């Protein structure tokens, strides 16, 4: 596969993943509003905002889902899968191509967010061990 074909494939995958995240009610247009933490193939919540957003989305769109842990878990599974795919696409896109200004901004914001979260986790671990 030529670099151009790879870049096209990566952009298509990136757009599909962003669309999937939008479908479950997560606004990706302003990434700093979405706090993601990746650890042990699970998603954790930073200040609870993402959890609240998912629950509000689930309840307002279907009142039967409010007490349905399976339905909420399905949304979380989609979120974890596609958020990881977005991170991978952004990393590979810069490898094959400089990317557009918008893509570079998205990649920078994503990395900044991941750094903030990592620092937050390190501080929590340090507090726990020094307890």
Summed up, the helix count is: 4
Estimate nothing, just give the exact number of structural domains.
1
User: What structural category arises from helix and sheet content?
Assistant: mainly alpha
Estimated helix fraction:
over 70%
Largest sheet entry: 2 strands, antiparallel
The main sheet orders its strands as 1-2
- Strand tally is 2
- State the end-to-end distance: 53 Å
Order of helices and strands: HEEHHH
Mean pLDDT: 63
Backbone CA Rg: 16 Å
- Residue windows where pLDDT falls under 50 for at least 5 positions: 29-51
Description:
The protein has helices at residues 3-23, 49-61, 69-96, 101-130, and strands at 37-39, 42-44. The chain is mainly alpha-helical and 131 residues long. It has one domain. A two-stranded antiparallel sheet has the order 1-2. Strand 1 and strand 2 (42-44) form a beta hairpin. Helix 3 (69-96) packs across helix 4. The radius of gyration is 16 Å and the shape is flat. The model is unreliable at 29-51 (pLDDT under 50).
Gist of the model:
This protein is mainly α and 131 residues long. It is built from four helices and two strands, in the order αββααα.
Task: Please render the helix and strand layout as text.
Elements: H1 3-23, E1 37-39, E2 42-44, H2 49-61, H3 69-96, H4 101-130
Antiparallel strand pairs: 1-2
Helix pairs in contact: 1-3, 3-4
Core attributes:
single chain, 131 residues, two-stranded antiparallel sheet, 4 helices, 5% strand
